[in-house]
Specification:
There is one protein chain. This protein is α/β, with parallel strands linked by helices. 40% of the residues lie in helices and 11% in strands. It contains 15 helices and ten strands. Helix 2 links the parallel strand 1 and strand 2.
Length: 422
Amino acid sequence: MMEKDKTVCITGEDVMSSLVNTRQITFEVTDACNLKCEYCGYGKFYSDYDKRENRFLPLDHAKRFWNYMRQLWLSPYNKSIHNKLFVSFYGGEPLVNMEFIGNMIDYIENSCSASLPDINFSMTTNAILLNKYMDYLVEKRVSLLISLDGGEEATSYRVTPAGKNAFDRIVYNVDKLKEKYPLFFESNVSFNAVLHNRNSVEEICSFFKQRYNKIPAIGALNNTGIKDTMKDEFDRTYKNPTESLLDSENYTQIEQEMFLKAPTYRTATMFLLENSEFSFRNYNELLYGKKEIKNPIPTGTCLPFSKKVYITVNGKILPCERIGHQFSLGRITPDTIDLDFSAIANRYNEYFSKMQPSCSRCYARKGCYQCIFNVETINNKHPLCHGYMDRETFERYKNSQLHFFQTHPDAYAKIMNDVIIK
């Protein structure tokens, strides 16, 4: 157990180092969209985002942040100079503001130097305007994550402002891209499907395998930030990915094809990484054993900016696009980048202090993936974590993971070879 009275801290230097070595910078280039998806994360179910006003992110704001990062990359905190950095475009629908994307790509390419990481461009898109801009996107090798929920009925929540199912328009453009640029399609296009009450894991996987020979990422609806008045409708729309997978007629084959995209494999991998004495993240762990963390940080929250920095259309700076805008950590102003690393660390430490009493008693703390920003009561004196496990609950969880490996004898070797060793 962690010492109850021990305060676990991160420092301003930790925050700065995480930002300097971040893996991804994502710009919300616009909050405008040419679809009106009924479950949109900025739609009727949710209350934790800034008002959508069809705005465009000012190009000078994005350039200012890029130049700010260029200066940080010259600092001794830069440990990832030869690693890949993804510069991503998000929305709304990013292709609605294609002028920004083209100008920003040009600006970044013209600023490249030996001090910068290896830059890769990516985008999340609904593909409605893909036919118009695909030549440019292929030329710049922009990796595309296309949002599509499966067949026509499965995609019926993705509708135009007039309420018409957008399936035909989406697949027309995707099919055109596949036909015109087959090599690009194979290497640079992936899919993201939202699971809900009009589709299933089995139906989604079958559609993408047959039509595009791809395995999509499948995500559940975000269940945080729900308006009180919309909870009943949200619950009717929501579907659990694990339950949907296990309801599939050929769920074992689907699991194997999805691998880490399957919730069962993903959970088993996390369990193996954090709880097995025979899994090693690197050669040093193999030789010298795993280093004991005396005072682990409560929850599974990422260090701020360690994985991503997200810039909203209003210039707010967040550690992830899935976090409510009320939790912004800084802002791009007309004159400067407003980021106070010490203040950010103190804010995280305040949250961690609230969670520590619960985390210190939790038997699942080694493999926790609970983000503090998804604990809806984090601003309360004693927040409630729904991922908390007492001894009995953890034993049931552990036995379920061991049962998974027992019934999937090839899973252990696949995880060790394809995830841990690689």
